DNA sequence: ACCATGACGTTTC
DNA sequence: CGAAACGCCATGG
């Protein structure tokens, strides 16, 4: 297990940003990584999401996709289309695991959030 | 210390 | 656009 430091600031920050994603919006792992100052650790953001399962908080990981707007992580959700269903429920168009109008629903923490 | 894996991203072909 | 290679970084064996 990770170093049980007092707090895994990195992971917690990822969760914090993910929770702040507005309804009907999505963001990318890289955007979060950049916001956290770890632009080259986009993969670590994904790792944090993976850990989000054992977080007591409900992390809207379905709102976090890759740079192309593809639901790369849908495979980690329950079932196979849960992630897509959640996004469509928020008014986001998803076709073939890819978000439509991605740039319109894209929420950049480094820009929107300050 | 080394190698393999991964919910990524960019570059190149 | 798609596939492959490379880069990047943390975790596990």
TrEMBL record:
Q: Where is the signal peptide?
A: none
* Keywords, ordered alphabetically: DNA damage, Methyltransferase, Transferase
Q: What is the lineage of its organism?
A: Bacteria, Pseudomonadati, Bacteroidota, Flavobacteriia, Flavobacteriales
Entry annotated with the keyword Metal-binding: no
SUPFAM superfamilies in UniProt: Methylated DNA-protein cysteine methyltransferase, C-terminal domain
What sequence ranges are listed for the domain Methylated-DNA-[protein]-cysteine S-methyltransferase DNA binding? 9-92
Name the InterPro entries on file.
ATL_DNA_repair, MethylDNA_cys_MeTrfase_DNA-bd, MethylDNA_cys_MeTrfase_DNAb, WH-like_DNA-bd_sf
Against Pfam families, the record matches this protein to: DNA_binding_1
Q: Does the keyword DNA damage apply?
A: yes
- Name assigned to this protein: Cysteine methyltransferase
Which GO molecular function entries does the Swiss-Prot or TrEMBL record give?
methyltransferase activity
Q: Which GO terms describe its biological process?
A: DNA repair; methylation
């Amino acid at each position: 297990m990770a170093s049980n430091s007092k707090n895994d600031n990195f992971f917690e920050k990822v969760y914090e940003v993910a929770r702040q994603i507005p309804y009907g919006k999505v963001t990318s792992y890289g955007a979060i990584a950049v916001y956290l100052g770890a632009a080259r650790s986009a993969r670590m953001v994904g790792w944090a999401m993976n850990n989000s399962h054992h977080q007591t908080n409900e992390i809207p990981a379905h709102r976090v996709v890759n740079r192309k707007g593809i639901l790369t992580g849908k495979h980690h959700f329950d079932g196979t289309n849960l992630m897509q269903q959640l996004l469509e429920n928020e008014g986001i168009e998803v076709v073939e695991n890819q978000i439509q109008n991605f740039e319109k629903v894209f929420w950049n923490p480094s820009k929107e959030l300050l």
